[in-house]
Amino acid sequence: MTDDGRPAARRVDLTRVLVVEDSEEDVEAIERALNRSHPALHLEFTAHGDGLAERLLARREELPGMILLDLNTRGEDGLEGLAALRARPELADLTVVVFTSSTAPADVDACYAAGADSYIYKPVNFDLFRTVLKGAVDYWLQAKAQPPAAPGSPRVK
What we know:
By secondary structure, the protein is α/β, with parallel strands linked by helices. The chain is 38% helix and 20% strand.
């Protein structure tokens, strides 16, 4: 608990990525792409988002530094899972990147409204897929590794 009575945020491990994806082809592509671009990352895969927030909170180890979340998964869809994650203050430090095949503006808007940190379309071409995924992971690893800026100070990119 924090001094103001809120649950304390859990520690995150920036070297761990949880991928919520039920397509075996996409799992293989994500694994191949990230093993090439970020071999030091520890990847964990789950095919469904059902009870994701509760499963993360039940863990004894540190939380993953990033979640790559597909919108169209078995059981609870990605948007419901995202909303459940953001409803838990203990999971506030998680970076959630929606990585999906949907380009629908309504999906993009709904994910940002629910608290997504990024929304990225999965390209069909593997080289582009790898480049887009690398860029997203690089961005969030760098952003999370930087100390927070002091209030009122300009943010350096």
